[in-house]
Amino acid sequence: QVQLVESGGGLAQPGGSLRLSCAASGSIVSINAMGWYRQFPEKERELVATITSGGDTNYADSVKGRFTISRDNAKNMVFLQMNSLKPEDTAVYYCNADLISYSDTVRARNYWGKGTLVTVSS
């Protein structure tokens, strides 16, 4: 069984910072890309940032220059440093991982965390 658990969400003031963490655990063989997505009320989930196992990153235009994604491959963790937060960043943030587990070593599967709420408000 594979689990992704996010932490670090909460309340921040506009212009402030938060750091999200996500730990993948369980019967993991290897992890390919990891990423962060967010979902606004009554909207579809959208990409925030992704990072490959080699460290290549991709960001949504709305967060470029403000958010930084990183990962610790040894610990199966991914992080999202969010700076210069805006009220429009308020959303539930989800961790995502494309990984191979011991329960299925033939192909990679996509896993999601349960999400962590980020609220940006004064």
Describe the structure.
This protein has 122 residues and is an all-beta fold. Helix content is 0%, strand content 62%. The protein contains no helices and 11 strands. The relative contact order is 0.32.
What is the fold's blueprint, element by element?
Blueprint: E1 2-7, E2 10-12, E3 18-26, E4 28-39, E5 46-51, E6 57-59, E7 67-72, E8 77-82, E9 91-101, E10 104-112, E11 116-120
Parallel strand pairs: 2-11
Antiparallel strand pairs: 1-3, 3-8, 4-5, 4-9, 5-6, 7-8, 9-10, 9-11
What's the tally of helices?
A: 0
Counting DSSP E segments of at least 2 residues, the number of strands comes to 11
Q: List the helices and strands in order.
A: EEEEEEEEEEE
Cα separation of the termini: 40 Å
Helix content class: under 10%
Q: What fraction strand?
A: over 45%
Low-confidence parts: none
Shape: elongated
The whole-number mean of residue pLDDT values reads: 96
Radius of gyration from CA coordinates = 14 Å
Write a short abstract of this structure:
This protein is an all-beta fold.
Structure characteristics:
seven-stranded mixed sheet; 122 residues; four-stranded antiparallel sheet; mainly beta
